[in-house]
Design brief:
Elements (H helix, E strand, L loop, with lengths): L2 E2 L3 H10 L4 H13 L4 H5 L8 E2 L4 E7 L5 E7 L5 E8 L5 E4 L3 E3 L15 E3 L2 H17 L6 E4 L9 H12 L11 E5 L3 H10 L4 E5 L5 H7 L8 H15 L3 E7 L7 H10 L5 E7 L14 H13 L4 E3 L5 H4 L4 H5 L3 H5 L7
Parallel strand pairs: 1-2, 6-9, 9-10, 10-11, 11-12, 12-13, 13-14
Antiparallel strand pairs: 3-4, 4-5, 5-6, 7-8
Helix pairs in contact: 4-5, 6-8, 9-10
The structure holds S-adenosyl-L-homocysteine.
Length: about 350
Amino acid sequence: MTFDVHDSEAVELHRRNHRLDPHVIRKFRNSLLRKFEADDSALSHLPETMNVQLHSLSVKHRMDSALDGATRLLLQTSTSHVIECVILRIASGRSTICVSSQVGCAAACDFCATGKLGIAKNLAVREILDQVVLGGQILTNEGRRLDNIVFMGMGEPFHNSRAVTDAIRKLTDRDLFARSPASILVSTVGIPEKMTEFAETLPGVNLALSLHSADSEKRRTLIPLESKHPLKDLHEAIRQVNQLQGRPLMIEYLMLDGVNDSHDAANQLIRWVQGLNIRFNLIPFNAIEDAPHLMCSPREAIDRFAQQLREAGYQTTVRYSLGADIAAACGQLARTLQPVQDQQNSIASAD
Ligand code: SAH
């Protein structure tokens, strides 16, 4: 009988049945979950009769950027859904994996290709973890190390908060992936009670909030969930998260030409964050086919906006997008690969 490598109880049961010493399992886990060695190397630690399933996803397609160190993986679940996972090799030698938490997304943000999928299916803990293993194995094979894991792929992590929390527990478990909480970042569209709950449960893990506008009406046109979870509730949530974490929370701010990038918009943003412990990450918008009305702010506008925030005393970085040549397919490509019945009946399973 096969069992999943991330099912700790099953692993322990099979260890006993095979009368294996615990250190055999430790070596096997170290090999797969910490060193991200190839499947064969990991399995060589176990008796051949032990039918452990190492992966719950299969690599359907791999795209390597011709411009820089980005790799986009299209991964297929056992139900034939396709998700994306991106490996970012940063020039400094560091590497980050960007993982998905759902197939599609129910948040339906105007600027996001995944939101246009119109479906949301939660990924299981093992499917979240396997993205890390598969990405990690690619990096190990190149002699690189995995430094950071960000939940910025497809989906809204807090619409699948139980699986995301359980996955992060395993990622930070010393007997499993043994990663530091500070090397993990969860980005959310902004679900106040889930943000505080998460910071209570895993205070060491970093949180990022996709704000994109400090004007409630404008934010609502970009992010429909603003109606349900308005800015004032998010402000209070950040205050509470600050108290629990004691360090700056990241505010992500998409730079959209003529929409939210003016001098006044920056001033409004500065007023809104007053009293909060935050840092800004400005994101140049990647144009998507389904939102032809949106364009990225010009470079000078982004620099000016950043300067204004810095002058107000806030640490501000501009995200340099990697993989511009393969990012054009972001979300949109995955859509063409979803099972047909899901494309026909769009569901929104947000809680
Ligand atoms: N649902 C989560 C995480 C996934 S999106 C969230 O909303 O934060 C990760 C980040 O990418 C978010 O800040 C999101 O707003 C941003 N994003 C979405 N579409 C984008 C696009 N076309 N160009 C640039 N950033 C985008």
